[in-house]
Amino acid sequence: MDQTMKQSNRPPYGIIGILMIGAFIAFLNNTLLNIALPSIMADLNIEATTVQWLTTGFMLVNGILIPTTAFLIQKYSVRRLFIVAMSLFTIGTLIAGVAHVFPILLTGRMLQASGSAIMMPLLMNVMLVSFPIEKRGTAMGIFGLILMAAPAIGPTLSGWIIEHYDWRMLFHFVTPISVVVLLIGFFLLKDKKEKVDISLDLLSLILSSVGFGGILYGFSSAGNKGWDSPLVYGTIIVGIISLVTFIVRQSKIERPMLNFSIYKYPMFALSSAITMVLNMAMFSGMLLIPIYVQTIRGISPFDAGLMMLPGALAMALMSPVTGKLFDKYGGRILALIGLAIMTVTTYMFSQLTFETSYTHLMVLHAIRMFGMSMVMMPVSTNGLNQLPPRFYPHGTAMNNTLNQVSGAIGTALLVTIMSNRTESEAKTLGEEAMKNLTGQPTEAALAQLKQEIAMKAMLEGINYSFLVATFIAAVAFVLAFFIKRVKQAEDKTVEKPVPEKLEPKLAEN
User: CB neighbours (10 Å) of residue 449?
Assistant: First the structure.
């Protein structure tokens, strides 16, 4: 980093602000799209197995590109990467907004993902090199407040837009904001970076893409195609083999694309484990609550978004508070309290009925999000704090990649559990109903009975998935007992001199 901008001096707030706005737009776009999926299915006449590729494809592109960001951050300036990322995101948004067939919409969505994949690791790396460890929690808390505002307003805003306009308006709404942010970055970002003599290992890129991409595709497809599908277990096996080969290669080449030696730092390894487990449990709420609210209870998209608003606001408003508490007390006590809340509330979600009140759902979801706010950022920051500065790009890239992988695994696992439990419960309820039938029921009565059985079976499937998620959250709770407050480790690795350290040079405009 430039000698005039060491961590002890004033951080480059201008650069950080611009990057945060860009990341906020990317986050907002994701939360806007979730509620729009049923409308897209109806308008483009596609099935759920097809429309889910708007989410799966996004995760795939992230899983393939994020591992390369460690190299990109070392090689190029913040300005150059930001402009490329926002340009890709803006072009993707424009294409998606005019799409009248699904392939074009998916193309736009994947271009958005390619921009988003660069944005988040870039912002995290700038935050890490800009603030000393003792102030990093507060800085990450403010960062969390801004980013969590997106899921706070996204579902409600999306529900209102969908009820009053065409789903394409979601992209038209984001496009002008994205263009303005791109122009601001183009004219105001002025950081400098000396030429760095490193090159991307092509074989590592191929192995990484096939490895992470195969695992993500396999787990993402399992919920629809089933675990016995050759496409599912085949891509997972190919992905695992490629990933193992990738890891072995990274340990042997002089300048690895993604440096796995960061796992020799125990708190970073522990934070990765907790974050992956927590992500799997977290997806239970993101995935199952909307299904329960809209499919079983028949609540409108707008009201469903409103129901989740207090929880998102609680998470956003708690971020700066959690950051200050992290600086003062460390991550262990925060993680234990937060995970205890998450475990209890996840269990309470496994007791849903047809009569569970709207207010009860809103309050329970808000408490669950409150608990989550005390875990994610403190645990992640505590792990990154132990790394020497030259490993920051690798640490942020690894964390973001594992978030995608664990999210895909969690989604596939919970969807499979819910589907299997629903199917077995429907069979059991159907057999009991046939035994209890008296006389010859009318077709209307039979249709109503089938509908009731389907709803009861789905409710049982959702409750059982939440119960499994409770045990997953409990695993993270146990792991949190091993968290320790860390000091930055000394980097004892002797390397050949290079023209530039791995941190980007930052000089505020």
Answer: 16
Q: What are phi and psi of 486, to 5 degrees?
A: -115, 160
| The length of the chain, given as a count of residues | 509
Residue whose C-alpha is closest to residue 294's, from 57, 36, 59, 466: 36
* CA–CA dist 361, 18 (Å, integer): 36
CB neighbour burial string for 56-94, b if at least 16 within 10 angstroms, e if fewer: bbbbbbbbbbbbbbbbbbbbbbbbebbebbbbbbbbbbb
Distance CA 278, CA 465 (A): 15
- Could you give the 3-state DSSP secondary structure of residue 389? helix
The string of pLDDT tens digits covering residues 83-116 is 999 999 999 999 999 998 999 999 999 999 899 8
Distance between CA atoms of 210 and 238, rounded to whole angstroms?
A: 8
Which conformational region is residue 45 in: left (phi greater than 0), alpha (psi within -120 to 50 degrees), or beta?
left
Record the tokens describing residue 359, joined without a space.
């207010």
C-alpha dihedral, 204 to 207 to 212 to 216, nearest 10° = 150
Longest dimension (CA), the chain: 88
**Distance of alpha carbon 84 from alpha carbon 81, whole angstroms:** 5
Q: Convert the pLDDT of each residue in 169-208 to its tens digit.
A: 989 988 998 999 899 888 887 766 665 667 778 898 899 8
- CA dist., res. 156 & res. 166, Å (int): 16
Residue 200 Cα distances to 7, 184, 197, 263, 503, angstroms: 29, 30, 10, 22, 17
Q: Whose structure tokens read 């919970």?
A: 414
